[in-house]
Design brief:
With 394 residues, this protein is mostly helical. The protein has 14 helices and no strands. The longest helix has 31 residues.
């Protein structure tokens, strides 16, 4: 299992790094071309738009076809979509790249998470497996923005020159091709046929599962925090005259911290329940969001990003472990799609809302409102505790 999991993690890193780097480069190029914060917010929302509509079909497709067919299709979409911005770095092509890389990453994530969920046996193995898998996006959230920032600053005749952006997009487009090399020797866990009862299924049936609505609500609040951070850091960097490489490094420090805490999660999760980790993370996030607007320098922003990475990085594996425990095995791909659809539906609207609010009131109220919502949502996270007094080792 360890060798197969390492191949899946490596494959996820390269595909997700494509989206992460593109998501950092796209708003910087749009701002340089004179587009407003609201337009940049709408552009960032496109990274989530395709996932809203494709998540459920992608989950059902993964339930039917397994792992490799969705991954191959995802790589093709990401490569084609991001290559267009390398050829024509204009606003319409930036929109296409955002749609393509976001949709491709979402489809791949569903297939990977479904496959890993079937490799594990029991709650303890689920928490451990998803903790290791979650290291992939944390690494790619560092790798993508840093590589893109370096290309933007140093691959052209001047910093943030159009040539630098072209090279950055080309590099991002090539990264997903390495995903296919990583996963080519991975075996399908089950035959690619639909398992379970043959009666007609409706996605709303999943919401009748115990704790599903509560889990989706908590997941939505926490994913909004990632959206706020991803949106505001480039905006703050542009306002304060920071270079693309500095902005990429601040975002990358968040990712490094998330990867670090996820390295510790297999040990931590043996001693704590999922709900305990999630609740603690929400409380700490609320406090950090209250303090972030007062960070005046790149070093201070980087320090706050590191702390946010530590507390938010611990959440996703615990969410995934809980979801697999409360979902029928033959519908786990569909449940993963429902989760992805719910958080990305808000990710479509939130950047535009953040952009409008930031243009009118500044970025500080955005941090404070989202932080207050997350703090209040900690009560719902605490209610995700299991019935009875089960040991985390169970």
């Amino acid at each position: 299992m360890k060798r197969e999991l390492s191949r899946l993690i490596a494959g996820q890193i390269f595909l997700h790094a494509c989206m992460a780097g593109t998501r950092m480069a796209v708003p910087l190029l749009a701002l340089q071309q004179g587009f407003s914060a609201m337009a940049v917010g709408a552009l960032l929302a496109l990274f989530a738009l395709t996932q809203v509509f494709l998540a459920l079909p992608a989950g059902r497709y993964a339930d039917r076809k397994g792992l490799k067919a969705p991954l191959t299709l995802s790589v093709a979409i990401a490569f084609t979509g991001v290559s267009l911005s390398a050829i024509w770095p204009i606003f319409p092509m930036l929109c296409v790249s955002a749609l393509a890389s976001g949709g491709a990453t979402g489809m791949a994530v569903i297939a990977l998470q479904r496959h890993v969920g079937r490799l594990a046996h029991g709650p303890a193995e689920l928490k451990s497996a998803f903790s290791w898998l979650s290291i992939g996006p944390a690494i790619s959230n560092f790798l993508g923005p840093v590589l893109a920032g370096l290309m933007i600053d140093f691959a052209g005749p001047a910093r943030a020159h159009e040539t630098g952006f072209r090279v950055a997009f080309l590099l991002m487009a090539l990264l997903p091709l390495l995903t296919l090399l990583c996963v080519r020797r991975v075996r399908e866990k089950t035959s690619p046929v639909l398992e379970g009862p043959k009666e007609k299924k409706h996605v709303l049936d999943l919401l009748h599962q115990p704790m599903m609505l509560r889990l989706l609500g908590v997941n939505w609040l926490l994913s909004s925090c990632w959206d706020v951070h991803t949106f505001v850091v480039p905006l703050l960097g542009h306002e304060r005259g920071l270079s693309a490489s500095v902005v990429g490094t601040i975002l990358g420090s968040f990712a490094v911290a998330a990867a670090t805490i996820r390295l510790c999660l297999p040990w931590v999760s043996r001693h704590l329940h999922e709900y305990q980790i999630i609740t603690t993370s929400m409380v700490c996030t609320a406090i950090l969001f209250g303090a972030y607007p007062f960070m005046p320098t790149p070093w201070a922003m980087g320090a706050c990003s590191v702390l946010l990475g530590l507390v938010l990085g611990a959440v996703q594996p615990m969410i995934m472990s809980t979801l697999h425990q409360i979902t029928p095995a033959h519908r786990q791909g569909e449940a993963l799609g429902l989760r992805l659809m719910s958080i990305n539906a808000s990710s479509v609207l939130m950047p535009m809302l953040f952009g409008a609010a930031g243009a009118i009131a500044g970025v500080a109220p955005v941090f404070w409102v989202v932080g207050a919502a997350v703090g209040l949502g900690a009560k719902s996270a605490f209610k995700l505790r299991p019935h009875g007094h089960m040991s985390p080792r169970a």
